[in-house]
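Hi R.,

Here's the chain you asked about this morning:
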Amino acid sequence: CLLSDVDCFNAARRDPLDDGGVPLNVLVADCLLSDVDCFNAARRDPLDDGGVPLNVLVADCASQVVGISVIRDEQDIEYIRSHYDIESFVYYGHHRRDEHAHLHHLVLNPIFNHFSKQLLKETLRLSHKTCLYYPIYPEYSVSQASKAHTLASCLHDFVPVRARRQIEYPLEQLGENAPSERILQSQEPYALYHINRKLTLEPKITVNARIVVVGASDVGLSFLETLTFSPHLRFNNLTVISPQGLPWQSGPDDVIDNMLPSSHYNSRIGHAHMSIMTWVNVVKGKMTAIDRERKLVSVLPGAQVPYDLLILCCGQQYQVSSQPRRAIPNHVYTLNSDRDCKIALQAVKMRREGSVVVYGASLAAHSSIQALLAIGIEGSQVKLIQPSSHSVTCFNNPTIDEKISTILKEQGICVYEGYTLKEWNDGDIREGDSLYAATFIHGEEELRLECSSFFCFDRLGIDHDAFQAINDCCLVFDGRLVVDADFQTTDKAIRGAGSLTKFARRYHADKWSLGHFDSREVGQ
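And the predicted structure, written out as tokens:
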């Protein structure tokens, strides 16, 4: 069978999958067979579904079906052109409208996976198309559009297309000059992949180097995006290590999504447009050690990840203030991810009867107060404590500061300025105790507040486990990980970037650490 030719042709039989040459699970088979029925009945979808022209092609080897592809005419060309940078790969003036197609299924027997590009070429030729588009929806998507697609076996032959930043049009002012509805229509965000006749003739260079990124920060994700969106390179071994995996993997929740401030880049929609999980292996755990000789990263709970190139971009996280040197009671929260926010809000909802103390003067402290009000916590229950260490507000604008203060008063939120955390539970804490009070000091004045939850946004710092791993493997650490102008540490196989790092002292650039620059540009 392996020495026989593989032929591609338009499906002519009632069910080309009956011979079992293509292994399918039940969900894929039902979806495919439904499209095959539509093709055999009328060569198009039912009129109730728009009547879109449909084509089914079959790959045959030794009289056995080994692959099948299902395409439809692309109906959202205007939306794709306005929302994705597709014109980096195709000149629309060179292609008729009916030459654009949308790939819904391409299933190939794994033995014949190396024929995937040939099957794509034949799909374009036999259906008289020049361009193919394929979307990947987020894992949590429940829309009908996501159910109408199966993961294509030839995805590595496609090129990913970057999303465009969208213009917010003043429609009332534009009137008749507003863009068409096809451009303005709202669709669930997805990652777009594309291939055309020209791209089928351009080979990709395969890179098998084991590249491991520690930390799912903006810098790390931007670095991974740059690699995966390289149109002529194929990285087969990308890994990211993060305690909670990649962000924004759960279903959308407006309260949780807005509880922590984030850049426009690090957002749920941005991650849906990138589809990083398609190309990257995710290891959930904390880095605890680095073996530079064997090139291994130890990860809790006991796993080891080999690397050829290690990228350290753990960033900084909110940490509990070092003032109270005793144990930390339950219901004291530091929020560094959407998962932390979800856990904290669920706990607060179960302890509604007590007050909630928000300790910090950062933007995250204010956005968390907004989230608490959104879940039904009364403003009188919220206490905002702004430490004395913050001489300049996060807004750095007197007008905005005055407006924020007015809003806090209107909501009944008590604000205490210049207080520093002294202790919890009057200093009497045992392991497993729940929080019931917090004490603060301001000069000689002492303030005691009864509370059931405590949100700490006092300071950002490097994770202790990450510091221990970096220090134990003898990388230079001078308050932060020391790197040169090429992001390289003292080990040529280890690089660092982001707020975790600083430039070596020989550059005399202590005021120009990488944390002062745009994280996305640093990652790129």
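The two ends are 46 Å apart (CA to CA).

Let me know if you need anything else.
M.
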